[in-house]
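Hi Q.,

Before the meeting this afternoon, I wanted you to have the zinc ion prediction in hand. No need to reply - just skim if you have a minute. The sequence and ligand are here:
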Amino acid sequence: MRVFSLSLQKIISMPRRRQPRKIVAPPKFREYRPYGHQGESTGTVELLYEEYESIKLADYDGLSHHQACVLMGISRPTFARIYESARRKIAQALVETKKIKSVFGNVYFDRNWYKCTKCHNLFTLPDSIHERLCPMCKSNKIEFINSNQ
Ligand SMILES: [Zn+2]
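Predicted structure with the ligand bound:
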């Protein structure tokens, strides 16, 4: 019995392997900053890409949680957890005048996204295009962002 409870304890304490969440596009900002408040900003909250996506799908696109969790390839309880976390972080940033920084989380994109390191434009390119240039400024200084930045 003791052996059993030890191994159970070990299983419980093992980090849970998280399923990556599918998102359509990365946020178009790296950081939001409070403006017009008294004193210095009091810190930063890190909003994960999947948290941003949950807010976008549910509150901006007006999808139900069921539709949103299907799009992100996750269960409804997982979606609810991510969405709740996103709302708490955004509320904290608004009330405590913190910056909101977008942070790559546990995600993958439904297509290939690139970032121009010159003008910071985010864009996709079809696989048929072999010349990898920023469509905005024509710079070839672009980076693939489908992984941790
Ligand atoms: Zn560019």
